[in-house]
Amino acid sequence: MNRRTFWNYGIGAGVLLTGCFGIGGNHSNQNRKLMGNINHSVCRWCFEDIPLETFLKQIKRLGINAIDLIGPDDWPILQKYNIDCSMCNGAELSLTEGWNNPKFHDELIDRYLKMIPLVAENGYKNLICFSGNRQEIDDQTGLKNCAEGLSNIIPTAEKHGVVIQMELFNQQDHPDYMCDSTEWGVTLCDAIRSENFKLLYDIYHMQIQEGNIIDTIRKYHSYFGHYHTAGVPGRGEIDDSQELNYTAIAKAILETGYDGYLAQEFIPKAENKMASLKEAIMICDV
């Protein structure tokens, strides 16, 4: 048994991890149910070595009812287990080929105009997008290009109730990516002026790029439509081996009135990956 299975990390009254699963089990008063204040999700790619159906069964037992970054081919499997797709993908070209470059606009517009109704028809809400790399395009021009390109799909997103969400990345992991600043992203949102365009605020990326996470959330929360986690440094577990206090961050998110999803996007380093995921959920369950 992995040592994390029995590690009491002492949040609130304290939670004893008595196994990979069993949140809320009445066999032990040291276990507790999820509080229900935070909508928990998890990114599929971080656990992609676990077969999808097996993974869905496991996260259901942890009280997780949503999964991030799943495309249309796998939506029927999610629906089989009544799991929400909290962030859809499949319309984008790549992380590096995005809306900041007009040469990609025609193809991106076509792909998103096809995907947006499909997202809505399947009962989902969020669809990811990317700025793309600079590739010698200056930030002001890139912002203008993004706004012009996205303006062709936002009316369709508004019609179908789908929120297009551009993810923020850091330069260490994604050199040359344009949307690497909260203020740049906020300026883009102001240019688009639609509640159907938001920023996916990746806490891991922005801690590396900017820091000042809680103040940024308090200041700009109305621009953020989704959150991702991971430990800094190393993108591993969000426990006390890393520098971010995710309990405090989750409280700050909750205090803004946010009712969307907080999705775990750490890459498990421990042998027992599901125990790490359970631990992360409990750390953020405020």
Q: Can you describe this structure in just a few lines?
A:
By secondary structure, the protein is of the alpha/beta class.
Describe this structure in words.
The protein has one domain (37-284): Divalent-metal-dependent TIM barrel enzymes (TIM Barrel), CATH 3.20.20. Helix content is 35%, strand content 14%. The protein is built from 10 helices and 8 strands. Strands 3-2-1-8-7-6-5-4 form an 8-stranded parallel beta sheet. Helix 4 (139-150) packs parallel to helix 6 (182-192). The longest helix is centred in the middle third of the chain and has 17 residues, at 105-121. The chain is globular and about 50 Å long. The two termini are 27 Å apart.
